[in-house]
Specification:
Blueprint (H helix, E strand, L loop, with lengths): L2 H8 L5 H11 L2 E10 L7 E11 L5 E9 L10 H7 L10 E8 L6 E13 L5 E5 L6 E5 L5 H11 L9 H7 L2 H25 L1 H7 L11 H4 L1 H22 L5 E2 L16 H7 L7 H14 L23 E2 L17
Parallel strand pairs: 3-4
Antiparallel strand pairs: 1-2, 2-3, 4-5, 5-6, 5-7, 8-9
Helix pairs in contact: 1-4, 6-9
């Protein structure tokens, strides 16, 4: 199974039949239930908890596969710890050593679902001390579905599947595949790559270097690195702004529908791909920073006096459907207009 096929499953609506194939591809030995196995749950947060099967690892450990139907009043995207507590009780460290669990919304208007890995291990170290490990509910989980990119999860599952080629496919391999620490390392590596690519482009463009950032055209070679500091600062702040907006759009706060007359803005159900959509629908993508991002950063996000918090360019919606949309007011200085024009 190719990574793009895995990603397609992860970014589609939840369908366990497709996951059946993917789980079978990733793990060494999987036993799927032929009928519905209902597990008891005394909480009022779930519609059902079904055991879909189990996974046997080469170290003798077993992971059970659960599907949990979440009642519509609970938000899949925002809740992690509460869901973790619903299912962690099924680990006994004797028969079940871990859980691969799908949290699926009863409300089908919620496009996202959550895949989490839960594990507990206890052991005595060589010095006689007792050690216990638990997966953190905020750190071993992926949000999947139509609003998500699925890129990292697809890559991790593909990497995990390569363990089948050897004789060791152990619990630690699964823990690593879901570890947020590795996610953070990957994020900062890619962030650094993008910083280098973008800042290198800016420093090598003579128009940007000399006309926009006003670097002396007759600079000495040994002065170049110091002279490029304003460009690197610009790059750093731009990427910081985009990362911040990425988290806001994930919450559904960017591009929400404009309110009807006399009503207030409801900050939900905005574009979760706001920045990507803004670029794709821009009439002048070659002016994306100077015309679109500059308007968004310096005249919109930092302007609390906007009528209904509208985001407009040249008095009109920048999106192809021509529907007026809103973005929040953000104070704190991140979107102060403190850089050169023309980029």
């Amino acid at each position: 199974m190719q990574e793009r096929e895995i990603k397609h499953i992860l970014t589609s609506n939840y369908d366990f039949e497709k996951w059946h194939r993917l789980i079978d591809f990733v793990f060494p030995k999987v036993n799927f239930e032929s009928a519905i196995v209902q597990l008891n749950d005394s909480t009022n947060k779930t519609k059902y908890i079904h055991q879909k099967g189990d996974i046997e690892l080469t170290d003798g450990k077993k992971i059970i596969i659960l599907e949990v139907g979440i009642k519509k009043e609970n938000n899949i995207a925002r809740t992690k710890v509460g869901f973790h507590n619903l299912t962690a009780k099924y680990i006994d460290q004797a028969n079940n050593h871990g859980i691969l669990v799908f949290y699926v919304p009863e409300d089908k208007s919620q496009p996202d679902y959550r895949l989490s890995f839960i594990c507990k291990q206890s052991k005595f170290n060589e010095d006689g001390s007792f050690e216990e490990f638990k997966t953190n509910p905020k750190r071993y989980t992926y949000l999947l579905g139509g609003n998500e990119s699925g890129t990292t999860a697809a890559k991790r599952l593909k990497e995990l599947a390569t363990k089948k080629d050897g004789f060791d496919f152990v619990l630690e391999n699964v823990i690593e595949a879901f570890s947020v620490e590795k996610l953070n390392d990957e994020f900062f590596r890619k962030y650094k790559e993008q910083f280098q690519i973008f800042s290198n482009y800016l420093v090598e463009d003579e128009h940007i270097r000399y006309d926009i950032f006003n670097i002396n055209k007759y600079e000495k070679q040994e002065e170049r690195i110091d002279n490029e500091l304003p460009i690197r600062d610009f790059t750093k702040k731009l990427l910081g702004r985009l990362v911040f907006l990425y988290f806001l759009q994930r919450k559904g706060w960017m591009g929400v529908s404009a309110p009807t007359k006399g009503n207030k803005v409801i900050w939900k159900d905005g574009y979760t791909d706001f920045i990507h959509r803004l670029f794709n629908e821009a009439k002048r993508p070659d002016k994306f920073h100077s015309k679109y991002l500059s308007e968004l950063f310096y005249k919109t996000l930092n302007n609390e006096k906007r009528e209904d918090f509208l985001f407009l360019i040249d008095g009109k919606s920048p999106f192809t459907d021509n529907v007026n949309r809103c973005v929040p007011y953000l104070n704190g200085g991140l979107f102060d207009d403190d850089f050169s024009k023309g980029i």
